[in-house]
Design goal:
This protein is an alpha/beta fold and 87 residues long. Helix content is 31%, strand content 16%. The longest helix has 19 residues.
Length: 87
């Protein structure tokens, strides 16, 4: 799509260990590196609930994910999903 001037992004939980990130979650795994190389921006899923965080831990977790995206991806970042809803 880049050859047509259309920016490309994938909406994903980039820090998923063993798939997008390495087993320790500290950097990118093979799939994450391939996706990053073909992306113009990050659509990040910062999902505290799915990572065992409670309501009080949610914002620090999201802030940590944003830092992780910046440190490991180096692309413009949009948080496109935050799956923690209080009813």
């Amino acid at each position: 799509m880049n050859s047509y001037g259309v920016p490309v992004a994938i909406s994903e939980d980039w820090d998923r260990p063993g798939v997008m990130s390495d087993a320790s979650g500290s950097g990118l795994a093979f799939t994450g590196k391939q996706v990053q190389a073909n992306s113009d921006m990050v659509h990040g899923h910062a999902m505290p609930f799915y990572h065992g965080k409670n309501e009080a831990q949610s914002m620090p977790y999201i802030e940590g994910r944003i830092k992780w995206y910046r440190d490991n991806l180096g692309l413009p970042t949009l948080i496109s999903e935050v799956s923690f809803t209080r009813l």
